Prior knowledge:
This protein has 13 helices and no strands. By secondary structure, the protein is mainly α. It has a domain at 148-248: Receptor-associated Protein (Up-down Bundle). The model is unreliable at 58-71 (pLDDT under 50).
Amino acid sequence: MSxxxxxxxxxxLMALMAIGAMLLTGASPAKEGQRRLQAVRYRHSESxxxxxxxxLKKAIxxxxxxxxxxxxxxxRGEALSLRLDRTGKGWSVTQxxxxxxxxxxxxxxxxxxxxxxxxxxLGIGVLIGAGLPHKVVxxxxxxxxxxxxxxFPDAIxxxxxxxxxGLPVTETLGVVSHEIPGPVGIEFRGVVERIRIGxxxxxxxxxxxxxxxxxxxxFFVITLAIQRExxxxxxxxLSNLADVLRKRAQMKLKIKAMSSESKASAYIVGALPFxxxxxxWWINPTYIGGFFSEDRLIIAGLGGLTWMSIGAFIMAKMVNxxx
Length: 323
């Protein structure tokens, strides 16, 4: 069996594992929560425009591919642009592609010089070039959303104080955009600017909610939409929402603390074989050099990677909790 055939077999196994994982896991709680929030928003609205908007969104969403619908956009380029925009770093799609290609080339050349196995070097280079930038973007997205969610209840409390003092909602949004630092102020400034150029408040807020993709801001948008349709004390409603968001953040921190030991164990168990392999290869390359040249050892290595990937996936599911 040639190296190309081995790579194809490994790719087929990984694709089969991914399909099985998607069939077993189903919809995530976060996506299900977003769907239920949208259903509640339009269920309690008697406005004909809202119902028409709901039907239009369903019709448009049904025409989009599933991958793009989950990403919140209509094409792969828009999905990638949306992810890069969520980082808040100002990165463009072109820069991302160039960085991925450059990283793939560097890793491929370095491994080929070290091992002399062209197809194996190319496969690892493509894997790292495609996976590492994706992970980096995801890390910055999580970091920015965590910063946003930590300051968002303070922004809502500031809105409550402005409303109780007699200011209109649009004016309080402007106050929040200048008083709250970080991502919260930046996003609220974007809302205020869209309102100034003629967009309605609901449209401006919903556009920001689609860009952020966080349930906390979606709660805020739906609260304002329902209150605008049904009436009531907006200041009291937002105050209750701020309290709910603080308790939600506390619950997340509690779960994170309770699962930290299991996560640390999973990281150690998953990384230890790679660390040992790298250390032995660095100390005595000829001892395990056969994993890059002999067919039987390559098959054994690919099988070990497959089973380790299954174990890492199971451990990640066991220690991952959605709120």
